[in-house]
User: What shape does this take?
Amino acid sequence: MGNRCESCGVFVSLETAEPEITNLELDEYDEDMQEIHFHGEMRLVRTCAECGDEMKEANIEFEGGPIDLAEHIDLCGDCPTVQQELWDNLEIEAGETEADERGEGSGRYMKTFIIGKLNWEISCPDCDFTAEGTIEAEEQASYFEDLY
Ligand SMILES: [Zn+2]
Ligand SMILES: [Zn+2]
Assistant: This one.
């Protein structure tokens, strides 16, 4: 056990870099089109606390929603995006990301989970409708894959 950094030549502690969002997409609309979900994937990287070299990674899929679209209908019942019925113009964008961690259990049975947080925003290009929130995805630290 332990994390030996090749560059530093010693065992080092790890830090988690800001999550990298590798995919973020709106799902297909539900049949009644009252709400929408989204999905994506983020890459979490643990780096050497001394030199910053990437040492371990995990690619985690996440799913968000439902996001209520009733407000969109109220706000712009006749904006082209609503009128299209398929509403395929709505856009989702990734905002700020943040890494965090949490422990579960105690002593030698303590498990560490690395958490990636993403602020997302959905907007309509045809009106002022926006919805935003934060989604979290996590992976147990011991399941990260070595990068060397
Ligand atoms: Zn290092
Ligand atoms: Zn709209």
The mean pLDDT is 89.
